[in-house]
Predict the 3D structure of the following.
Amino acid sequence: MAVIETRDLTYTYPGATKPSIKDVSITINKGDFVILTGPSGCGKTTLCRCFNGLIPHFYNGTLEGEIVVAGLNVADHQIHQLARHVGLVFQNPENQLFALSVEKDVAFGLENFAMPRDEMRKRVDWALQMAGISELSERPPHELSGGQQQRVAIASVLAMQPDIMVLDEPTSFLDPVGAEKIFEVINELNKKLGITIILVEHRLDLAAKYANHVIVMDEGKVVLSGTPREIFTSEEARLIGVGIPKATRLYQQLKQNGIDLKTVPVTTEETANLLREALKHD
Amino acid sequence: MIDVKDLHFTYPTGLEALKGINLTVNDGEFLAVMGQNGAGKTTLVKHFNGLLKPTKGEVLVDGVSTRDVSVAKLARNVGFVFQNPDHQLFSETVEDEIAFALKNFGFEEAVIEKQVDWALNLLDLTQYRKTSPFMLSGGERKRVALASILAWDPQVIILDEPTIGQDYQQKEKLRQFILQLNAQKKTVIVVTHDVEFVAECNPRVILMSQGKILAEGIAKEILTNQKLVAQASIVPPQITQIFLELADLGLPTDVIDVPEATEILLERLRERS
Amino acid sequence: MSVFEGFKFRKVSSVVHNLDPRVKFFYVCVLFVMAILFSKLLALVVLFFIPLPFVFMARVKRQWLRSLRGAAFLAVFIFATNFIFGYFYPASFQEITGSVDTLMEYLVLLERAAAMTLRFVVLIASFSVFFLTTSPDHLGLALQQSHIPYEFCFAFTTAVRFVPVLADEAQTIMDAQKARGLELERGNFIKRVRNYIPILIPLIVNAIRRSLELAEAMESRAWGASKNRTNLYTLKLKRADYILVLVSVLMIIIAVYVWLYVSIPSLTTLLSL
């Protein structure tokens, strides 16, 4: 069942001479874990902003084509209406937290929805627990590490119980250990709660194992769409400059030299297992 | 040459960030300072240009203690490229931005012009000479910041987390650029937590954890040492992880890049047949 | 600056900290009115001692004293101006005829200047206790429940939230520019002011960028979805609050009575008896 559908979506920022995204037509199904990737400036961030209505309502500019999210036509609905279905987590952890305590930040969206206090309390506690930060509930954001702050941002969006969560390079400022923690949380939300995830990422080696769908953009257009395995072994992806995981590269190198591991590995475990098989069976 | 002797540093808030660092960085070296966020990496390198002065111990740059010299004087030889270019860009044009440090250091007009031309060319920014730096994209602003530091041709160049937010191609370009600088006998110090980036460069690595140096050596040795890596809370490169899983098959464990991995595996597989 | 320490909230568990900010503010206003009402030194001395029990109950003695120390400079200025003004225009004093000649008349003048200074100190002292014992969170909540439009309350708490962030950023920017040879300490007054441009511009540009990002995040979390927002926390008046309200009302009643019917002797008159 499609939860996001776009048809020839084209958007030009106000005052820009050419569109940032052009003729984007994609379908994202319920429960998908999508990785959206591509070189800097390819339009990924612009596309994300279309998913929750920041484009066109916040940024204005010219939006052509069609985009339907959770059954709602984005152009016809206000951002706060779309916020009930789509949540957006941004790159910089510091600039999405405005309150003086973690739980107040998590409650922010619910307060905007005028939710009664008791219900709000339950939701906030639940969201904190899902993000693994219950013990931080009364801390001020300034005292938290980047990774903790991002988890607060995720909890704040989660509290609103959206069907879809879009995360725009959420681990940019985090070290690999912090990044993995974030991916684990996001994966839980996807597998346990069925939330559709759209993750914009460069670090495919860390994120690829969770995804079932990869979309590659370049210069405003969608150039590739498929499963991680398909995308990582595609020559076009390599030419565009997508950061193919080393595990897959190893597979490709071996293949070039006549060793076929049969399945395309994307993660460390897969590669190790395939190599073990190959080394034993000879 | 940078000499660090029993360096201790405590922030005014009371946070003890460095607990006894001993280190020598020789001219022309390529060094990666690695460790988790909060290990003390940036705190350490801020001592190399005098932004921070030791609470205890000494830091000597070319034989002179940093306590006795101003930041401006040390900066003449030690260039520091900060993580976020938006913390330094302020000029009306890219040209002015690059000339800023040169003016501060009192270079002559003719020299400034020459250096600006050179820096613009080096980082592919000539077409943006008269553009406002605020009009440029994130990646371009990073190049302007880098150009403005290289402009005065310091002997030592420190880069603080240069790979953050960069896509694969940008990282490749950066890697090649760093190797080029190093080939020109510049001392390059990179503070990073990006293990894959370090694995591709294979520099000398010092691994930090909780204000101390855990270990130092070549990237190949450090990043493949399971115990060290776990202690420092970093994730080893993907290729290393694969080989560590296959350690029981008698394969070498100090592999960090794809070409070497391919070679070893091909040999093994050919041996068998 | 340590004088600001006297107004920065300190998290302590005390009766005073738990009082409703609206009640505390009412109490401080009453003190304010009383301080304005009385210009006799004796009365103001009494007023000065009133906040003291709160200071001790709240365990903020050291910080409170810092606010007084900070006020000392202005206090001296106020004392001097009052004394000098009174010397040249003694007509405002009923006890002085003509010009200030006798010792008695000097004492009257001194007493008046001291009273005015003490009035200022009483005001600073009372507000200091208020800010020391009220968290910005509670303050924002109090503003909201006092029916001030949510936009303003939000702007207030968000601003407070970002004060430490901006302070850190200002430091980083200064470091980044110092590392390019900028010397902030050198030069005459005009040069020093100009030297701050490379600090201010990135600070302001980044503040604007940050506001944009914040606005995006707010919109994405359904800002403006409902006309009447609800709130996770709520301020409820407790017994201690009602007691303080009662005390404040009593204080103002007594004060007005004394002001109308009781003539407070001046210290000088008392001493001369």
